Amino acid sequence: MPVKPPSRLFVVINALSFQAVWWTGVLYGNNAILLSLALLVVHFALTPNRLQDLRLMLMLGTLGGLIDSLLTWLGVFEFSSLPIWLALLWCHFCLTLNASLGFLKLSPLWLAALLGAIFGPVSYLAGARFDAVLLPMGDWLTAAVLGGIWLIVMPLGVVLAKGAIWPELAPKLEER
């Protein structure tokens, strides 16, 4: 099933929701979980693409959680407690790919890679400035590692949002 274009209002709501989840997660950690969950409910109540958004969130959100877990295990990140807020942030990020970041699906993949390589690390570095995460390897090395990861993750997310991977899954889920 093709993704329906979201309304301008929904795109704005999506962008503001992501920012609210990022800021509250970074500033309040796991105390922001209820807001993040509430905004997920709002998203799925308003989106014209429930099934596609759910599929994208499950696939890319799981990958993001695994990446952050691996980076924590490898000592790239340190958290004071299990960052459930970060897993929810991944969910919200995934939901931007069919809405506020939906323009990337019409752009060349190199643009998604470039934006990912820049803004992925910037997001984590900014989080570190607010003590949401510690970066034991230092800013520059961490930024290089994250830049390489996001160089791949962002275009992969765009490809997944386009439905280019497992597009046959949507009709089967819809029949249920």
TrEMBL record:
It comes from the Bacteria. Pfam families: DUF2878. The chain crosses the membrane at residues 20-44, 56-76, 82-104, 109-128, 140-161. Keywords: Membrane, Transmembrane, Transmembrane helix. InterPro entries: DUF2878. This is DUF2878 domain-containing protein.
